[in-house]
Every structure is written in structure tokens, then in C-alpha cells.
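I would like you to sit down with the pair of lines that follows and say whether C-alpha cells and residues agree.
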Amino acid sequence: MTLNEYPFAASYAPRPEKPIVALKPKAWSVFLSWKNLRGIIFIIPLFSIAWQYLTLQRTEYMFTTQRFRTITGLFNQEIDEVWLFRVTDLRILKPFLYRLFGIANLYIYSTDRNNKLVVIQAISLTDALKLHEILQQQVNIERHRNRPDIPGSWQ
């Protein structure tokens, strides 16, 4: 007996398929899996380190005889200025890991309203020491020049 000889054979014959719904899994759902959760533990610190690295790469410091300017920002750029006569203190800090690599942070304290503390991060120790001396001398010159009780100041 052939297929055509059976009753209702035509109803069992293959018909062309028509798509009803097409779906795709959400790629981010792999992070919700418990076995992949350990990946998040490593990915988040990597993003943090990358962000800090890029931020430091896009930071510039410019020192003049009267002020210093800090330019920071990865997407939005921020420019801050502090006049040298407003500087109250300078400090060099060398954390343990920085000492191993010969770098330091230079802290500049001022009476400026917006920038009471400016940190120049991760510069070489020799540059930090030189900059400390140069800034100290220039700050004293600017303080003397901007004193209101001395004739010839505020020119």
C-alpha cells in the first residue's frame, strides 16, 4: 500500500512552514548565570582601572609664574586655575607602591574657594621635588608682589 492509498493521507503530507515568531537571547544575560558571576568580579575592577588610567592620561598641569592650571576630563573637560599667591602649603606624599616605582603625589593647599586642595598625581619623585622647590620660591614671590601694604604692589 502506498501513502496515497491511505485515508487522510493528504492531511499528513508535509506543508510549507511559515514563521510565527523569531527570538534572540539577550547577550547580557550571561552575566546573570552563577557560573559567569565570577567573570563580573574580574570585569568591574578592570573597568575601574581602565577608567582611572584614561582619566590620568587626559590630565594636564600647566604652571606659570603667577598661577597653575589643571585640565582634566575624558568626555567633558574641566579647567581649574589657582593663583600662586593663594597657595598656603605644599606637601609631597609617597605611598609604599609609589616608592617602589619612584613616583609621588604633590599636594597643593590653597585658599581658593573652588580648589582648596589640588593633587598632582603620579609624577616622578625627582620632578615632584623640583616642582616643590620651584613652586615654593614662586609662591613667595607672588605673595610678596600681591601684598596690599607694600607700595608698588597691585600693579
About this structure: Strands lie at 60-63, 67-72, 78-83, 87-93, 103-110, 117-124. The mean pLDDT is 82. The longest strand covers residues 103-110.
